[in-house]
Amino acid sequence: MEALDQAAPKIRLDGISKEYIVPRTGQRTLAIADVSLDIVQGEFLCIVGPSGCGKSTILNMIAGLAEPSAGTVAMDGAPIRAPGSERGVVFQDYALFPWKTVRENIEFGPRFRSDARLGAAERDKLVRHYIDLVSLTGAEHKYPHELSGGMRQRCAFARALANEPEVLLMDEPFAALDAQTRLILQEELLRIWGEDLPRAERKTVIFITHGIDEAVFLADRVAVMSNHPGRIKTVMDIDLPRPRRESLRATSEFQTLADEIWQLIRREAYEATIDRR
Ligand SMILES: Nc1ncnc2c1ncn2[C@@H]1O[C@H](COP(=O)(O)OP(=O)(O)O)[C@@H](O)[C@H]1O
Ligand SMILES: [Mg+2]
After folding, report:
1. Residue 175 CA: which ligand is closest?
2. Residues 81 and 102 in one domain
3. CA 199, 204, 206 angle in degrees (round to 5)?
4. Most buried among 76, 97, 170, 203, by the most CB within 10 A?
5. pLDDT digits (tens, 9 = 90+) for 15-38
6. 79: helix, strand or coil
7. Cis peptide before 229 (omega within 30 of 0)
8. Structural domain boundaries, residue 249
9. Which of 22, 27, 29, 206 for a ligand 1 pocket mutation test, highest count of atoms within 8 Å of Cβ?
């Protein structure tokens, strides 16, 4: 791995906690406690953990959609206080505009972003590039309801990329897809991310999943979370060669890493199946 540890962090989570207070009842939930983590430029970091352990809470704070109750979240050394086009978000449920075509969805950011006034020709070129990159050429004029789940997620991905973000935040983007489509999109994501580019030219990706195999296949590092309150239990290096191809999944190196992570979260996963509230 190329000197992951020595670089200044792209994203820094420093002692963050988040407490939710339900307005009507005043009930408090400490969703995450004292989470610290540095993510460097060009890194692909996966966060895994049982349902309800605070994965989305962390991602939303990096996105600027929520504020920590304590601690700081910073990008390139500056605190994150609001959403910004340098951070693109892809959610599980596509979040496409249903009344806009594929093309119009992808074009939305480049057209309306206040800091990027592209000319029509430039914008057209940019949008075409991302449509091609995610292999949606030919489907530009379809509406989201006319697309398969996989194609919708390709469109959501292109829409996030068209803002040319430095950091991509992905919250279980493949969780609603069937198993085959999910495997295909995992490889596609790595291709689009630029596995063969130097680290400095790659986007920084923070990818949330509850799939252990998915995390091992994609990540440079996997942060494993525990529950009640959510904490980062361990961060594991995934020293598997890139580019990663389907055949990697059958290797003993891959299986060993996946097993190690499973042992770590097994107890938590078990407890999450028992509702103690
Ligand atoms: N807006 C909210 N108000 C109150 N509690 C919340 C809110 N969002 C999340 N929580 C609680 O915080 C915890 C972490 O949630 P979340 O970050 O969504 O977990 P995950 O994404 O790992 O499933 C859960 O106990 C959840 O019920
Ligand atoms: Mg979640």
Report:
1. 2
2. no
3. 135
4. 170
5. 999 999 988 999 999 999 999 999
6. strand
7. yes
8. 9-86+166-272
9. 29
